[in-house]
Design a protein that fits this description.
Pfam family, one: DUF6533
Domain DUF6533: 20-61
Number of strands: 2
InterPro entries: DUF6533
Number of domains: 1
CATH topology: Rhopdopsin 7-helix transmembrane proteins
Keywords: Membrane, Transmembrane, Transmembrane helix
Largest sheet: 2 strands, antiparallel
Mean pLDDT: 76
Order of helices and strands: HHHHHEEHHHH
Helix content: 55-70%
Radius of gyration: 24 Å
CATH architecture: Up-down Bundle
Protein name: DUF6533 domain-containing protein
Distance between the termini: 54 Å
Length: 326
């Protein structure tokens, strides 16, 4: 490209780079911060569905988000070398650089979709446990997962006129993508699909939190479960909404500004939710073994006291499915 430098585009490209490096730092810091809990509550425990999902989500997220930051922090693609090389070599290098700038987003979109679906499966497993592991809720979550994967596949798989470039403005060198400037939108539907899923899961979490608002007061695990679930869905919903708005606005050097935060925070929140549940579970079992070594519970008869029933409920709420880990 040639022309005057677009100062606002250069500043916005800097914002995107800073966002990606900040999120890479955050995911690395969170990994080190939770490493002890990971070893204690996952590596030392039996293998389960939740354990596999947690380890996959945790390590994939670290690698995926740090690699994204590395790409965005590169000063290249740069065309300064063209001054000192032959025209033929310059043309060849320009083709290669343009290819890197545009095809990076194919890899990023596929990786992002995989991370989002993994995160949603983790959260759906938690809601599945909160709803008593019924077949109806399982069928609903299977439909949601399939529908989400189908929507993402259609958005990124069907041919579109999405702009992918390594120089969005003259002199502004960064991998950037956007919808066409003719007013049509395509990538917006990706964020819309995620928002629909997040909205449904948020409503399910809020309903269960309201339904168990009384019983949750007596159970540390249920308090933790409802609080963390609602907090996650409420927070990440607005992050995804902000991304949808940015893509609807469709400024090529701003579209990726919120993407890094949606990748990193959704993964961190989901992983912390699993750590929190396991922490309460295993510590709860330790407390039960310490303080109630010889207590046995029987089916409540009409004359049984409320104290026995409350204690029984507390023990039940601190026990989860060891096979699935949820």
């Amino acid at each position: 490209m040639s022309g005057p430098l677009n100062l606002s585009g250069l500043i916005q490209a800097g914002w995107e780079r800073n966002a990606y490096i900040a999120c890479a730092t955050l995911v690395g810091y969170e990994y080190l911060l939770q490493l002890d809990a990971e070893v204690e509550f996952f590596w030392k425990q039996r293998w389960s569905i939740a354990k596999c999902l947690f380890l996959w989500s945790r390590y994939y997220s670290v690698g995926f988000n740090i690699s994204n930051a590395v790409i965005f922090m590169q000063s290249k693609p740069s065309f300064e070398m063209y001054v000192v090389v032959s025209i033929l070599l310059s043309s060849l290098m320009r083709i290669i650089v343009d290819f890197i700038g545009s095809t990076f987003f194919h890899w990023q979109n596929t990786g992002a979709s995989l991370q989002v679906i993994t995160t949603h499966i983790i959260l759906e497993l938690r809601l599945y446990a909160m709803y008593g592991s019924t077949r109806k809720i399982l069928a609903l979550f299977m439909c949601l997962t399939f529908g989400e994967a189908l929507a993402m596949g259609l958005v990124f798989g069907l041919p579109s006129r999405t702009v992918g470039t390594n120089e969005p403005f003259p002199g502004v060198l960064i991998c950037a993508d956007a919808d066409p400037l003719d007013g049509t939108h395509w990538v917006v539907y990706y964020w819309a699909a995620i928002l629909v899923i997040e909205g449904i899961l948020l409503l399910l979490a809020l309903y269960k939190a309201w339904q168990h608002r009384t019983s949750a007061r007596g159970s540390t695990l249920m308090q933790q479960l409802t609080r963390d679930s609602v907090l996650y869905f409420f927070t990440i919903f607005w992050i995804y909404l902000a991304n949808l708005i940015l893509w609807y606005y469709n400024r090529i050097t701003l579209d990726e500004l919120g993407t890094a935060f949606s990748f990193v925070l959704s993964s961190i929140f989901a992983n912390k939710l699993l750590i929190s549940v396991r922490s309460n579970h295993y510590r709860g079992l330790s407390d039960v073994d310490t303080y109630l070594p010889s207590v046995h519970f029987i089916k409540r008869s009409p004359g049984q006291s409320d104290i026995s029933r409350t204690l029984n409920n507390t023990v039940e709420l601190t026990t989860f499915n060891e096979r699935t880990g949820v």
